[in-house]
Design goal:
Helix content: under 10%
Number of strands: 12
Order of helices and strands: EEEEEEEEEEEEH
Largest sheet: 9 strands, mixed
Low-confidence stretches: none
Mean pLDDT: 83
Number of helices: 1
CATH topology of the domain at 16-68 and 82-100 and 118-163: Immunoglobulin-like
Distance between the termini: 31 Å
CATH class of the domain at 16-68 and 82-100 and 118-163: Mainly Beta
Strand content: over 45%
Amino acid sequence: MDVTASGQLPPFEHGLVGVGGPVRVESGNRSFDVTVGARRVDGHVVVDLVAANADGESGGNPMGFLRGFSGPRGEGTTTPLNSTALATVLVGSTRLFVLDYLTAAREPWPKGEWFPTSDLESGGRIGPGQSRTYSYVFPRLASDTVTLQIGSGGREYDLRITDVPVVPAPSAQATSG
């Protein structure tokens, strides 16, 4: 079953807002040009965020704006420290989190350690002339466009990119050789 939603996007008080891309993000004393695309895979929406080196520098851990330690599962749970778990998709007033899966329930996380279906490592270097793609798998959505949001809009480097078209999956005939 596809998720359906209506309403208006909630306010986004602080951070960067863009339509399409690229959007210039300053994070960890580095600059990146961020673009976003979305596609359907087996009905699910997969969002690809591409971060390209915009300052010609190398070194450091540039992707702090993607990093999230706490997932949507609440108290008594955890997610990998450097995962890209902060990404959500907004459709109207509905906010959807990246699909995740339970890996274990143990002390000190009695409700489990949950891994997102996104990159488990947001770090790494993006050198001059390089880019890196971060992919996120979301539920089946009955929408032709989505808004990708990183963070809640409370930090200056939180990010919201609106009106991202969701392209249909390629047909089986088009992918066969």
